[in-house]
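Example record for the data management plan.
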Amino acid sequence: MLAATGLRYAYKPGQDLVFPDILASNRDKILILGQSGCGKTTLLHLLAGILTPQQGVVKLLDEDVYSLSGHQRDAFRGKHIGIIFQQSHFIRSLRVEENLILAQNLAGLPTDKKRIHEILQRLGLDHKAQKRTQELSVGEQQRIAIARALVNRPSLILADEPTSALDDRNTEQVIQLLEHQADEENAALVLVTHDKRLKDYFANHINLSA
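Corresponding structural encoding:
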């Protein structure tokens, strides 16, 4: 379902980041561990087709992601990939519910408020649906970012440090939600982090070195 092979990326000549191959089938969960500067976020952006590597191939659902045009890649990502970024990138003038509706509409999908409130309820944030994102705590904003990534039922879930601002209780809740969503939607989950607490939740680990 996901096959990333031979990936190599350089921000500057002679400073190549070389990544291990990643193969994931439906419902697979992969934890990628590494300290700051080892290229965790870069790898996630390569898997999502946000960055284009100097070498390597990423195939998702038998589609060669890098062979798509920019517009095609954006549309493919919106429909098939749910991304939880380190920075939330919310539209500050919109309410929580409106940000999630926007995620649906940008993917070319109809508004589905039932789905939105189902996800918010699972994260314990349904009562925050009419709040603006700047009125939320950092931890609440992070959970809303997770809701936005899940709302379109993606085939691949990519998570960049989704628990960095959460305590142990909320960390467990978020990981359980991500794993449940991967199973429910027959999706693969790839999570990158330096948070060693998460090792206990994943059987499949990949360690990146700086």
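Summary line stored alongside the record: The radius of gyration is 17 Å.
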